[in-house]
Specification:
By secondary structure, the chain is of the alpha+beta class. Helix content is 25%, strand content 33%.
Amino acid sequence: MIKRNFISINKEFINPYDANINGKNMSSLKIYKELDLTSSSCAGPIGELSSVVDELREDEAVKVILGDEATKKDITLWVKKRGLKLIQESQEGNKYILLIGK
């Protein structure tokens, strides 16, 4: 059995205008894990993210922090191919932040 350790969602991360995405109330969304992949590139981030995404439940998401735009594009395409949801994306300085769910 997997022990679920949640981190609290940063309310500023979810745009209040996007509170309902795909018919789901995002205010009840739980961040299952936060992955800082800023030092990873190429296939590394996808490999790390893949195992975490497989553990997600419907009301959960993973917050991914990336260090370059090329990796962000790779992850975005991978999310679409896997049939996952890119709930939100933002940029803070030179970091790209994605919120990914099922």
